[in-house]
Amino acid sequence: MKNRHEVLAPAGDWECLQSAVFYGADAVYLGGEIFGMRSSAARFDDDLLEKAVGFAHENGVKIYLTCNTVPTNREVEKLQKFMQNAQDIGVDALIISDFGTLMEAKRFAPKVPIHISTQAGVMNYKTANALFEFGAKRIVLARELPLEDIEIISQKTPNDLEIECFVHGATCMSFSGRCLISQYLLGRDANRGECAQPCRWGYHLVEEKRPGQFFPIFEDKNGSYILNSKDLCLIEHLDKLSNAGVKSFKIEGRAKSSHYVSVVTNSYKMATDILEKNDDYFLPNWIKNELLKVSHRHYHEGFLFGKPSQGQYYENGGYIRNYDVVAMVDDCDGEFLYCTQKNKFDVGDVVEIFQPKERPFCFKVEKILNEQKEPIISAKHSQMKLCIAFKGRAKKGSIIRKCLKKDLN
């Protein structure tokens, strides 16, 4: 029997959690109100966290709770309550980067497995083995590792130690996220979940004797985005990672939208299904192309095949965004889609229905009815309930989206 793999999806809020579960995640990682590396993302308070664990477990999905900042002296006293609560409500793992925090987890939540965060920067099997001896069940490897080093770590560590790797999403220009630029420029500490992402900003050179004169590093009126990393995308190489011993494929994005979580989770879940059911790993183009339909930067393969020669994107620091989510399907009776509107769309638009483990399909909007069943030409009020004439079937929770560029249809 082929190895089973885990698709690990991010969730920054309840909607993203629902999307991750609906679109096939085997596990979801999220943050509580403290000790998480995404302070800007919506966080799960104790009540919502307990609800999240219950919802996930009802659907056969695990919940991993982040505890991967480095606590200050003033914060360490809060670890006991945080960890005891995590154990009481049944989280499936704590993601930890700090050694002292690991020891406190063993003390206050001994039944909860420990996953070592990528923030710990594990680059070799000696460190992995030492962490295993101190109680770690899983290592989330540093993102700067090439494939051959991942394989060596897997070969030289116990079979009981699971290996997890990031396979998709934004990457940091600094080693395993250990960056001080945001702290230096703005007083917002990246290592405490407060990064302002100054690596995405445009920069010029200034010569010390010519204050106020800005010299572009490249001939571009907008300056140069010399620190701006491309996004990681390893969906075409999951077989290589599997052969190297990786158990869990992790998707970055706790600050991303539910559409991003849905699409990326769905693509990687379908990819792992293909990986596990076939001797030859081959992805249909439409699955790969799905990853171009979410907001993203230019993709690259990170350090998987050695030091990247084209890991930065110099033209701008923004995202590529080709699709808008226009509605969510609440129900379908074969004649109408009953929906909640998200973004403006009109009669005559060609839209696409996206649902779990199926190839998306397009249809033309011929008729829209409002809540009073009156025909309208345009759906332009967010969260309005409406009906769209539709002959066919669509699952509750499916996404209706519209392409923003004609040449992509």
CATH class annotation of the largest domain: Alpha Beta
- Tell the overall outline: globular
**What kind of sheet is the major sheet?**
8 strands, parallel, barrel
Mean pLDDT: 89
* Portion in beta strands: 15-25%
Low-confidence stretches: none
Per DSSP E runs of 2 or more residues, the count of β-strands stands at: 22
Descriptive notes:
This protein has 409 residues and is α/β, with parallel strands linked by helices. The protein has two domains: 6-173 and 232-296, Alpha-Beta Barrel (TIM Barrel), CATH 3.20.20; 323-408, Translation factors (Elongation Factor Tu (Ef-tu), domain 3). It is 24% helix and 22% strand. It has ten helices and 22 strands. The strands form four sheets. Strands 1-2-3-4-5-6-7-11 form an eight-stranded parallel β-barrel, surrounded by five helices. It has an eight-stranded antiparallel beta sheet with strand order 17-16-22-13-14-21-18-19, with no helix packed on it. The longest helix has 20 residues, at 258-277. The mean pLDDT is 89.
What's the short version?
The protein is of the alpha/beta class. It has two domains: 6-173 and 232-296, TIM Barrel, CATH 3.20.20; 323-408, Elongation Factor Tu (Ef-tu), domain 3 (Beta Barrel). It contains ten helices and 22 strands.
Labels describing this entry:
alpha/beta, Elongation Factor Tu (Ef-tu), domain 3, TIM Barrel, 2 domains, eight-stranded antiparallel beta sheet, 24% helix, 22% strand, 409 residues, single chain, eight-stranded parallel β-barrel, 10 helices
